[in-house]
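User: Second chain of the day. Same drill as before.
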Amino acid sequence: MFALVVVGSAGSGKSTLAREIARRCGAAYLDKDALAGPLVEVALSTGGHGADEREGNSFYRDEVMPAEYAGLFAVAGDNLRLGLSVVIDAPFAAYLGDSGFLRSATLAAQWPDLAPTVLRVAASEGETRRRLESRGLDRDLVKLADWDAFWSTWGLSPVLWTGVDLLDIDNSAVPELDAVLERLSPGA
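Assistant: Same format as last time:
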């Protein structure tokens, strides 16, 4: 059993890789946006904010986002306690610099005692921008409108979490997942 946390900027391809890893391993796939997206939109609009207004929104950052991640970790904990491996797909951008975040989040969600593996997914600047432009999501418009600020802040954010096995993968082209899969299930 394993817990894989897949992080990366919007457009890095983290969701595509996370889904493929979950499929190959028979793990539960937990996408933060699928689990909490509609609730986040309702919370934002009820609070007087645009449904896609996340970046730079203190209400989202201080009130909604912590609940969003707490729910994600709770669902992961439920699956892990059932003996199921999990692949968590979320950017974690606001939390990557907090060395104790992952440990405190897993403790609060009562995860079994296991060391999570973190897969940081990155793609080149040009490929990331191309993906954001081609997917055409409203929530990406602010990123594209101020591309230099987005890329310099989120292009390849350092992961400072302690107690994790950190793997990096370049997803600019077709990535080699076999090494990642071997680290998750040695000898399988």
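DSSP finds eight helices and five strands in the chain.

User: Great, on to the next one.
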